[in-house]
Design goal:
homotrimer; mainly alpha; 75% helix; globular; transmembrane (chains A, B, C); membrane (chains A, B, C); transmembrane helix (chains A, B, C)
Chain lengths: 204, 204, 204
């Protein structure tokens, strides 16, 4: 079990770090800004999760290869010009992957620590969305909470419950994890593609 | 003692959640935004308090009926149109109640954990004001720290000291709690009514 | 050893508190705002460090004379008009001293708790820069992450590694601490004096 979870975590971290660095580069930040945004996007959600559940040492302190990897990625992103020219619209795919992986892993960790399904789903949503929310707050003029984007947190919430139900009925951890994960990634990409929102904007 | 404290806590949570949801609706946010602002306003102060004092599990994880209740309230607020039309000026009363309850309960918890009066009053002020400060930061264009509003944190600070002095002299927990609480709520409402400020604005 | 570390910590707190209060006064904030910004600038970095490393009780709760001292300083700053007229450019020197002291002390504490050099240098940078970043975010219109200021976090990072190498080679804690500290303060002042940046601004 450990290997799959650890592998997924690394994929999620890379995906979120890349989404953060694309955003930082498209705002023309300097290398320290690129690393800071990448670091916060990739590790912010997990740090909030670990602090709230008192799960010490934090996972990026236990696995220091993760921040080292983000540092290398930030140097490549800052000085390799072709990467600097990636448009911000390319964030969508790595962001959806990071959202899926972190939501499910956050919910799973909360279950392992003995929390209820409801608390675990809240912690899954926080783990999945907090890094991206910080990235958007630091890189955008409009605060993330005002933007009526395509459904985001709701997909993460639904994905966590699908994962719980699968695990309860199927008893196979790996299959449930895959189903929950795929649901979130696919639903998020469809929401962006077909512009699905909770509420239409009337006034702005 | 437990019942009074728990009952007050629930009243404070409902008051702050409502103040957050009124602010979110008046900014025309979608249901996820309404829940997020309500959740952060109601539970932000207590989460900061528990993290700083290493008081785990966090109170809303221990009492999961609290976030469930906020979720139900957010659904009602989002889809019941009459509630959506409440003006932002109606925040004042629930906000004053939340400020009073969370300040006194935060200070009391800090005393219970063996901290000094001064540290307990600081933690009381943080517990009482942090949720509302986050709400104002997320819902307003002007950061809360720039607004020379009617006295707010100072009332919370004074109320904590009144509570400590009463408890020390009267030896009755319930009476002291009530006096401190009433002081903060009434003083805050008077400050808004008669526009009492620490410093007048000259330049803005 | 304790005395030197504690003395340095107090100097760092005073330096950062003053830099925060100058910023708050130059924005014409009221006394509560001056105290809040001073408190957050001086104690924010250490609080983040202690929360991330689960180092409880927090240092300002253990040493309550520190917040009391900041409170007294805030009252003097708010009501003594001559201090209120200090220009914001005067922040540079206390800010450089605070950056140096908190970076090195944060890194040292992380080493003491058994973390690797890399993790310790990250925590040193966080401890040194977080208070100032919060101050700049709360007091400025332009978020700190967008400003291509003279090198700041990079100096803190380099200073931590110089401290580790000195400690490893020289085996004298006090001498290494002094070298790391002086490097950061002097490098920062030179960076401001000669306007050294990681990347020039082209677009803004």
């Amino acid at each position: 079990m450990f290997d799959i979870v650890y592998g997924l975590e690394m994929i999620g971290i890379v995906a979120f770090a890349i989404s953060g660095m694309i955003a930082a580069r498209s705002k023309n930040m300097d290398p320290v800004g690129v690393f800071t945004i990448g670091f916060i996007t990739a590790l912010g959600g997990g740090t909030l999760r670990d602090l709230i559940m008192d799960n010490h040492p934090l996972y990026w302190i236990k696995h220091q290869e993760q921040p080292i990897f983000i540092l290398c990625l930030a140097i490549i992103f800052s000085y390799w010009n072709r990467l600097g020219r990636i448009r911000e619209s390319r964030i969508v795919v790595p962001d959806a992957i990071g959202l899926g992986i972190f939501s499910i892993l956050g919910a799973q960790l909360a279950l392992d620590l003995g929390h209820s399904w409801f608390i675990a789903s809240l912690l899954g949503v926080m783990t999945g969305t907090f890094g991206g929310a910080l990235r958007d707050t630091l890189c955008n003029e409009v605060p993330f909470i005002f933007r009526k984007d395509q459904i985001y947190a709701s997909i993460s919430f639904a994905g966590c419950w699908i994962y719980f139900l699968c695990q309860w009925q199927l008893a196979s951890e790996t299959v449930s994890l895959t189903i929950g994960l795929l649901f979130i990634v696919i639903a998020r990409l469809l929401a962006v593609r077909y512009d699905i929102r909770l509420q239409r904007d009337k006034t702005y």
